[in-house]
Amino acid sequence: MTGNFQPLYCAEMSETNDPLATALFSELFMADQLARNRVSRALPKGMELSHFSVLNHLANVGEPRSPARLAEVFHLTRGAMTNTLSKLEWAGYVHVNPDWDDARRKQIVISPAGRHARDQAIAAITPLIGEIVESVGPEKVKATLPVLRELRKRLGQPN
Q: What is the reported pTM?
């Protein structure tokens, strides 16, 4: 037997020991780890994957977000998001503004420097991602996306 786990799917599996589910999540976890490592190495010096993710989100939504909303979007604690936002603010990549409707809240917006850093990161990782898609095959990737989206939606639902 090689190092690749090839589960046999049989109808008599118990719900707690499903080789298909185990194989699926093993592959997802390993792919996630490998993708994070590759992308992290390709990011501009000093930028962490969490920083890029927040900058990319802010650039895409194009409007201010509260720290609580960002924590919710990324499925993080407010403390973890506050830590990331503090680093981004220190680097000059985001502006933390008061929420004029509620003085207890803040609004986060991407700065011009943050947009530039995000664009540099996109330029650095795009060839890497494109190469992987090309080697796997664009048609296989297109066929896989609906399944991954469905998994993401189901995993994002409350327990």
A: 0.79
Instruction: Write the CATH number of the domain with boundaries 48-139.
Output: 1.10.10.10
DSSP collapsed to 3 states, 70-126? HHHHCCCCHHHHHHHHHHHHHCCCEEEEECCCCCCCEEEEECHHHHHHHHHHHHHHH
Per domain, the residue ranges of the chain are: 48-139
Residue range 113-151, pLDDT digits in tens: 999 999 999 999 999 999 999 999 999 999 999 999 999
- Residues 93-120, buried b or exposed e (16+ Cβ, 10 A)? bbbeeeeeeeeeebbbebbeebeebbee
